[in-house]
Amino acid sequence: MPGAGDGGKAAARWLGTGLLGLFLLPVTLSLEVSVGKATNIYAVNGTEILLPCTFSSCFGFEDLHFRWTYNSSDAFKILIEGTVKNEKSDPKVTLKDDDRITLVGSTKEKMNNISIVLRDLEFSDTGKYTCHVKNPKENNLQHHATIFLQVVDRLEEVDNTVTLIILAVVGGVIGLLILILLIKKLVIFILKKTREKKKECLVSSSGNDNTENGLPGSKAEEKPPSKV
């Protein structure tokens, strides 16, 4: 039988699990940085591109520090750097390496947006762009997210012919199945009505058959001759 020692060990395990959960909770709810769902983007040479970046923190932020860095196979540089005092103030740029870069984000109204626009793109701009965020309010916790930019001569047009053919075939098959089901229901309905009509005719004809009921026009039962 389990003794008091086993109960004490179980309680200790539950207590340890609870303390571990409390320890990990701030980590799971801490600073997050996102550059959107598309982490690989393409842009035409000579145009401009928006590099998105947003952050979130369940604990708020004060004197938040951010920067964008560029990294390719043969170069690394800090593009722009700045701070955000609090939730009620916009980002303040403290360093900018390239005049083609403009900070377009805002942290007011809980937007927490520190996106940038890169103008007059060149083929040499191809590479990884990383958005870094550090929050002193969370013991200088840092987080980052990376987006890969490919500068091309022109964007390739996506050929949707195969997709349209597949959709047309699938739609045709679905339509055919619906038509078959409708025809099936119609045939079942007609057969049911036909059987009901035949049944009514049989009942009616049996009611009109008077050959055995002794009515006028029917064949009466023959009586044996009376004895003298």
TrEMBL record:
<feature type="domain" description="Ig-like">
    <location>
        <begin position="26"/>
        <end position="148"/>
    </location>
</feature>
<keyword id="KW-1133">Transmembrane helix</keyword>
<dbReference type="InterPro" id="IPR000920">
    <property type="entry name" value="Myelin_P0-rel"/>
</dbReference>
<keyword id="KW-0472">Membrane</keyword>
<dbReference type="InterPro" id="IPR007110">
    <property type="entry name" value="Ig-like_dom"/>
</dbReference>
<dbReference type="Pfam" id="PF07686">
    <property type="entry name" value="V-set"/>
</dbReference>
<protein>
    <recommendedName>
        <fullName>Sodium channel regulatory subunit beta-4</fullName>
    </recommendedName>
</protein>
<dbReference type="InterPro" id="IPR003599">
    <property type="entry name" value="Ig_sub"/>
</dbReference>
<dbReference type="GO" id="GO:0001518">
    <property type="term" value="C:voltage-gated sodium channel complex"/>
</dbReference>
<feature type="signal peptide">
    <location>
        <begin position="1"/>
        <end position="30"/>
    </location>
</feature>
<dbReference type="InterPro" id="IPR036179">
    <property type="entry name" value="Ig-like_dom_sf"/>
</dbReference>
<keyword id="KW-0739">Sodium transport</keyword>
<comment type="function">
    <text>Regulatory subunit of multiple voltage-gated sodium (Nav) channels directly mediating the depolarization of excitable membranes. Navs, also called VGSCs (voltage-gated sodium channels) or VDSCs (voltage-dependent sodium channels), operate by switching between closed and open conformations depending on the voltage difference across the membrane. In the open conformation they allow Na(+) ions to selectively pass through the pore, along their electrochemical gradient.</text>
</comment>
<keyword id="KW-1003">Cell membrane</keyword>
<dbReference type="InterPro" id="IPR013106">
    <property type="entry name" value="Ig_V-set"/>
</dbReference>
<comment type="subunit">
    <text>A voltage-gated sodium (Nav) channel consists of an ion-conducting pore-forming alpha subunit functional on its own that is regulated by one or more beta subunits. The beta subunit SCN4B is disulfide-linked to the pore-forming alpha subunit. Interacts with SCN1A; regulatory subunit of SCN1A/Nav1.1. Interacts with SCN2A; regulatory subunit of SCN2A/Nav1.2.</text>
</comment>
<feature type="transmembrane region" description="Helical">
    <location>
        <begin position="162"/>
        <end position="183"/>
    </location>
</feature>
<feature type="region of interest" description="Disordered">
    <location>
        <begin position="199"/>
        <end position="228"/>
    </location>
</feature>
<dbReference type="GO" id="GO:0060307">
    <property type="term" value="P:regulation of ventricular cardiac muscle cell membrane repolarization"/>
</dbReference>
<keyword id="KW-1015">Disulfide bond</keyword>
<dbReference type="GO" id="GO:0017080">
    <property type="term" value="F:sodium channel regulator activity"/>
</dbReference>
<keyword id="KW-0406">Ion transport</keyword>
<comment type="similarity">
    <text>Belongs to the sodium channel auxiliary subunit SCN4B (TC 8.A.17) family.</text>
</comment>
<feature type="compositionally biased region" description="Basic and acidic residues">
    <location>
        <begin position="219"/>
        <end position="228"/>
    </location>
</feature>
<feature type="compositionally biased region" description="Polar residues">
    <location>
        <begin position="203"/>
        <end position="213"/>
    </location>
</feature>
<keyword id="KW-0732">Signal</keyword>
<keyword id="KW-0812">Transmembrane</keyword>
<keyword id="KW-0393">Immunoglobulin domain</keyword>
<dbReference type="GO" id="GO:0044325">
    <property type="term" value="F:transmembrane transporter binding"/>
</dbReference>
<dbReference type="InterPro" id="IPR013783">
    <property type="entry name" value="Ig-like_fold"/>
</dbReference>
<keyword id="KW-0813">Transport</keyword>
<keyword id="KW-0915">Sodium</keyword>
<keyword id="KW-0325">Glycoprotein</keyword>
<dbReference type="GO" id="GO:0005248">
    <property type="term" value="F:voltage-gated sodium channel activity"/>
</dbReference>
<dbReference type="GO" id="GO:0086002">
    <property type="term" value="P:cardiac muscle cell action potential involved in contraction"/>
</dbReference>
